């Protein structure tokens, strides 16, 4: 009787394993016990990255004696590298190490970088002497700058590897096939973004205040200690985690489709889709390809369809097929969906270029202004960006909500659902991305942040070089014309918006394309979390 009862309660998962490689037991692994230990890792990552970046420009100009343009580029290059390395971290996690090892290793790398930065603020020989009474400021030596850049880019490497895997490893702790755990997964992402906001808020308020009023070494030291503490908590939960099989990077799917299409470039493309290989030819429900939703053949980028040309007889053993020579039509269509999104993706780069100014010249401006509230309290210059960003985003959020509601009402009216308050309006709440390439959405999002920061560095360099005689971006802002740089950004942003409108008109949404061939989106599709 006892053994029978024990066998019923010992439920194991088919697609997850414990730390010893055994099938994971539902009652002993995963869920909130494990996920809670992962949330702390994201909070300290945000605390550290923003705690360094948001106030770094004042350290570079005030302590390291760098010019405003050079300091701004250092900040944006640091942020750009951090976000771009997320792509590398995601590739390593999906293809080689797995998410657990990637988080543990790169958290240690990030801690090393912040520790070096902390030491550089403590040892006097690693920074220039203070400016003299006659305002003569000795520039930082090459050795001092080398240590600074070593610290920053080691931190960026750790940030990239850590950030790329935290959300994915957190979702791995929940079983999508279980109704209760699927609901818990949704709550996990709510808490995930809450912890991101919590870490960000602490960085731009408490940490910035400590850096400005107590000392940089204390502010950066807190960051280093937080990372180490988060790593200890994360590793302590090893026995509770669920581990998933390596699935490979979405970048590999894109590469295989292009390679297969190139190899068959001289083969004539059949007009009949039945001559193309697709997921319905896989013979087993357990095969990974069967988890994808079959997509219809589209008319754009037809040269990629050659990747799905089947040269062997239908029903041939799929295990003998080389993925670098043949892809399914659905794989091809998913790659096409990514390509279609690229123009719209590119127009978001300019937004992040504008956003990057909040951590560079806006901080420099604020540091020269009266920031006192009353007689005793003075807001740190870097903290003002938190208020600005919060106000702007609150406006944008309500604008987006209003537009979404207008669209929802339009759809409800077109389906005669206005008077039925319990009806489910046929408007998907999920994002526009291929179901089989959900992790790609995070990579695309982070890459726009990265390229936006790098484009900011590019613009600053070009503008500073062209206006060298009468610099817009002078080391002394009172002698420069920073307003002209902002006017330039406004003009570029306006042109970018025009390009976006053209791209948005050209784009055909996935649900519209599926509806044209009579295919409905699956209700079980999960949103693509960033």
Automatic annotation (TrEMBL):
It is found in: Membrane. One of its GO terms (cellular component) is membrane. It is a multi-pass membrane protein. Its main location: membrane. One of its GO terms (biological process) is oligopeptide transport. Keywords: Membrane, Transmembrane, Transmembrane helix. The chain crosses the membrane at residues 74-93, 100-123, 188-211, 217-235, 342-361, 381-404, 444-464, 484-503. The keyword Membrane applies. GO terms for molecular function: transmembrane transporter activity. PANTHER family: OLIGOPEPTIDE TRANSPORTER-RELATED. This is Protein NRT1/ PTR FAMILY 6.3. It comes from Cucurbita argyrosperma subsp. sororia.
């Amino acid at each position: 009787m006892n053994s029978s009862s024990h066998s019923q309660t010992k439920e194991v998962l088919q697609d997850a394993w414990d730390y010893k490689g055994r099938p994971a037991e539902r009652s002993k692994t995963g869920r909130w016990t494990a996920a809670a230990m992962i949330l702390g890792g994201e909070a300290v990552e945000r605390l550290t990255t923003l705690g360094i970046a948001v106030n770094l420009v004042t350290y570079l100009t005030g302590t390291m004696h760098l010019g405003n343009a050079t300091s701004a580029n250092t900040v944006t290059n640091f942020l750009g590298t951090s976000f771009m390395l997320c792509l590398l971290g995601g590739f390593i996690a999906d293809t080689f190490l797995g998410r657990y090892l990637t988080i543990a290793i790169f958290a240690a790398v990030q801690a090393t970088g912040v520790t070096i930065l902390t030491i550089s603020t403590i040892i006097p020989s690693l920074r220039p002497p203070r400016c003299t009474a006659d305002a003569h400021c000795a520039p930082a030596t090459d050795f001092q700058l080398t240590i600074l850049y070593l610290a920053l880019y080691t931190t960026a490497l750790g940030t990239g590897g850590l950030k790329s895997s935290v959300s994915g490893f957190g979702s791995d702790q929940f079983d999508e096939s279980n109704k209760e755990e699927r609901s818990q997964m949704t709550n996990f992402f709510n808490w995930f973004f809450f912890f991101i906001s919590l870490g960000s808020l602490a960085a731009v308020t408490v940490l910035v205040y400590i850096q400005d009023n107590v000392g940089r070494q204390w502010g950066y030291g807190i960051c280093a200690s937080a990372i180490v503490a988060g790593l200890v908590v994360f590793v302590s939960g090893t026995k509770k985690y669920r581990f998933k099989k390596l699935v490979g990077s979405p970048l590999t799917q894109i590469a295989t489709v292009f390679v297969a299409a190139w190899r068959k470039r001289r083969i004539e493309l059949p007009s009949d889709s039945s001559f193309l290989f697709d997921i319905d030819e896989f013979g087993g429900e357990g095969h990974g390809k069967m988890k994808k939703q079959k997509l219809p053949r589209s008319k754009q980028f037809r040269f990629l369809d050659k990747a799905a040309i089947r040269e062997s007889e239908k029903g041939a053993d799929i295990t003998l097929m080389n993925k670098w020579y043949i892809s399914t039509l659905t794989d091809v269509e998913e790659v096409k969906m990514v390509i279609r999104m690229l123009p719209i993706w590119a127009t978001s780069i300019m937004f992040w270029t504008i956003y990057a100014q909040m951590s560079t010249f806006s901080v420099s401006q604020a540091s020269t202004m009266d920031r006192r509230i009353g007689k005793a309290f003075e807001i740190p210059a870097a903290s003002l960006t938190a208020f600005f960003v919060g106000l702007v985003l609150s406006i944008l959020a309500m604008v987006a909500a209003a537009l979404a509601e207008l669209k929802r009402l339009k759809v409800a009216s077109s389906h005669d659902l206005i008077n039925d308050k319990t009806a489910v309006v046929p408007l998907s709440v999920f994002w526009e991305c291929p179901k089989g390439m959900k992790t790609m959405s995070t990579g695309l999002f982070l890459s726009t942040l990265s390229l936006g920061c790098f484009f900011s560095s590019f613009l600053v360099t070009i503008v500073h070089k062209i206006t060298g005689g009468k610099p817009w971006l002078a080391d002394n802002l009172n002698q420069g014309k920073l307003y002209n740089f902002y006017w330039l950004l406004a003009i570029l942003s306006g042109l970018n918006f025009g390009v976006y409108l053209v791209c948005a008109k050209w784009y055909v949404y996935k649900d519209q394309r599926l509806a044209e061939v009579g295919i409905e989106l699956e209700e079980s599709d999960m949103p693509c979390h960033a």
